[in-house]
Design goal:
alpha+beta, paralog of FGE (formylglycine-generating enzyme), 3-stranded antiparallel beta sheet, 3 helices, 13 strands, 18% strand, globular
Length: 301
């Protein structure tokens, strides 16, 4: 694949070193707290946006995972009507629901993809600066290769998200809204029916809208979950994204997502923290998952 003429001007340095990774105060899959060591790297200042991904597609002709019809042979018992391109879209109910029950706020929508985030009648025309969504793991890898970059490991991602802070619950400290200030694009209101976000930001928001962390990076927490290169054996039960049906094909492999999204809420999914993680099947694309890239800095021997 031909590479883009990409510069480092919109990437920031994350210094190498040893830090404390993990958390014991919230969800069990984040434990234990343990030392992790990473080398220095550059990281995209923000998640990859719709405009950036559009340039990649225009230059390479890449067809995303959600734009390819699944093969029913890969999914015994699959409804043949769903053997068409599509992706999973957050579809909020109009009333309160049991948050301990199945996540009924997800629908597989035919024709949903990165260009049409809510379905075939929707568009990204007015949201070029929002994070791209409905991208699968293979799409993120393809973009990274084109850009001459890589996807981060979980440790690299968490190092970046912590911004140099040690032992803090959030990327900015131990208080969720210090002084009443919202620090990330997370759910506002009663989840999943009472969305109190500003008009035009009921889902994602423009990148860089919320404060940068200690390394100058934006949106590592909230807005969209981000793919990492970290493999995982199986998805855990429970949590904010449990029960999502497969959205395409590609097998049972999973990768670690980090950072939470605009759907994380204090009364439901408290994964708007550096240590939070979700194990996502690579054959699943959704309206709240995106990515960003890194470029590792070579060291002299």
């Amino acid at each position: 694949m031909a590479q883009a003429a990409v510069t480092d001007e919109d990437m920031l340095l994350v210094p190498g070193g040893t830090f404390l990774m993990g958390e014991t105060r919230v969800y069990p899959e984040e434990a234990p707290v343990r030392p992790a060591t990473v080398g220095a790297f550059l990281m995209d200042r923000t998640p990859v946006t719709n405009a950036q991904f559009a340039r990649f597609v225009a230059e390479t002709g890449h067809v995303t995972f959600a734009e390819i019809a699944p093969d029913p042979a890969d999914y015994p018992g699959m409804d043949p009507a769903l053997a068409a391109p599509g992706s999973i879209v957050f579809t909020p109910p109009d009333h309160a629901v049991d948050l301990q029950g199945p996540p009924i706020w997800w629908d597989f929508v035919l024709g949903a993809d990165w260009r049409h985030p809510l379905g075939p009648q929707s568009s990204i025309e007015h949201i070029p600066d929002h994070p791209v969504v409905h991208v699968g793991y293979t799409d993120a890898l393809a973009y990274a290769e084109w850009a001459g970059k890589q996807l981060p490991t979980e440790a690299e991602w968490e190092r970046a998200a912590r911004g140099g802070l040690e032992g803090k619950l959030y990327a900015w400290g131990d208080e969720f809204e210090p002084g009443g200030q919202r620090m990330a694009k997370t759910w506002a209101g009663a989840f999943p029916h009472g969305n109190a976000a500003p008009t035009g930001q009921e889902r994602t928001s423009p990148v860089g809208r919320y404060p940068a962390n200690g390394f100058g990076l934006h949106d590592l927490i909230g807005n969209v979950w981000e793919w990492t290169a970290e493999p995982a054996e199986r998805a855990k039960e429970g949590g904010c994204c449990a029960g999502l049906p497969a959205a395409g094909h590609g097998g049972p492999q999973t990768r670690v997502l980090k950072g939470g999204s605009h759907l994380c809420a204090p009364d439901y999914c408290k994964r708007y923290r550096p240590a939070a993680r979700w194990l996502q099947p690579i054959d699943t694309t959704t309206s709240h998952v995106g990515f960003r890239c890194i470029r590792r800095i070579a060291t002299e021997n």
